[in-house]
Amino acid sequence: MFRQALTVARVPTARLLSTSSPMAQVAQKTGDDPVQQLFVQKIREYGQKSKAAGGKMVDVTGEVEKSLRDELSRVARTFGIASAQEASSLPAFKFDSTVDVEPFRAFTDDEIQKRDAEDQKAAKAAAAKASAKAKALSAH
């Protein structure tokens, strides 16, 4: 009885999960996904609005512009920047090209083994020192 109920329940579930829905069939035939079409349409609309705004924020209200000005002036005051306009731009860095940087140098296997041995020796010495200190403290 229970197995029969599971078999009957499987058929509608499989049908729901299959790609036999009319919307999926249309998308497969035409190659157009409705969600994808809507996404592309919204991207294009935003592109047009962005060009019309001339590089400023799109669909902005006066309240949002005031909030932006307030935040930029707060950042300018906090970090000692001369004006709010400077707070919205990236800083310009100048690097001195006369600095001599040593190129990357790969270590040989012998050098790596030597460093590992030194590290292990230092770790053992530190552990022995800590153990001796703990014994001395517990003796008191």
Task: Identify the notable features of this structure and list them briefly.
single chain; 140 residues; 70% helix; mainly alpha
Shape: extended
- Give, in order, the helices and strands: HHHHHH
Give the integer mean of the pLDDT values. 79
In DSSP terms (H or I, runs of 4 or more residues), the helix count works out at 6
Please bin the fraction of helical residues: over 70%
- Oligomerization: single chain
Structural class: mainly alpha
The fraction of residues assigned to DSSP E strands is under 5%
Task: State the major sheet.
Answer: none
Q: How many strand elements?
A: 0
Query: pLDDT below 50 for ≥5 consecutive residues: which ranges?
Result: none
Tell me the distance between the termini: 78 Å
How large, in whole angstroms, is the Cα Rg?
A: 34 Å
Structure description:
Belongs to the eukaryotic ATPase subunit F6 family. InterPro entries: ATP_synth_f6_mt (IPR008387), ATP_synth_f6_sf_mt (IPR036204). Helix content is 70%, strand content 0%. The chain has helices at 2-17, 22-30, 34-53, 62-79, 84-87, 109-139. It starts with a helix and ends with a helix. The mean pLDDT is 79.
Q: Could you outline the blueprint of secondary structure elements for this entry?
A:
Layout: H1 2-17, H2 22-30, H3 34-53, H4 62-79, H5 84-87, H6 109-139
